[in-house]
Every structure is written in structure tokens, then in C-alpha cells.
Amino acid sequence: MPVIVNLDVVLAQRKIRSNELAKAIGITESNLSLLKSGKVKGVRFATIAAICRYLDCTPGDILGYVPSDEDLTIEE
């Protein structure tokens, strides 16, 4: 997948545990784990906003993009 999730890096830099973040933003630890591993097909902007607000970061800090041929077609 061309979009990569760097959430675990930002959490480590801020010395915040996943369970603390999950509780603070109101999602389950299992959903946060799926997001961290990149195993989700979508995420709400409200969730990204809550993560960024709590971690004092921007979406670009937690999400990255690596060009590949996969991003030329959209899965539905």
C-alpha cells in the first residue's frame, strides 16, 4: 500500500502508550492497533484530527506516501 502509517513512531517520540491514546480519543485499542499496522481500508478525518490534537502533530507526521503502481487504481 502506498500510504504508510507512522503513528507508532510519533507515539514513541512522545512517550505515549497506545492504550492512553485510544482512551483519550475514544476508540478501542484493537482499532488503534489496526490503524497503526496499516491494516485498515479507511479512517475518518475526525479520528485523524483527534489523534493529531492529542499528540500535537499534523496528519503528515503520522501518515506518509510512497509512490507505487498500486495507487493508479482505486479499490471499491
From TrEMBL:
<feature type="domain" description="HTH cro/C1-type">
    <location>
        <begin position="20"/>
        <end position="62"/>
    </location>
</feature>
<protein>
    <submittedName>
        <fullName>Helix-turn-helix transcriptional regulator</fullName>
    </submittedName>
</protein>
<dbReference type="InterPro" id="IPR010982">
    <property type="entry name" value="Lambda_DNA-bd_dom_sf"/>
</dbReference>
<dbReference type="Pfam" id="PF13443">
    <property type="entry name" value="HTH_26"/>
</dbReference>
<dbReference type="InterPro" id="IPR001387">
    <property type="entry name" value="Cro/C1-type_HTH"/>
</dbReference>
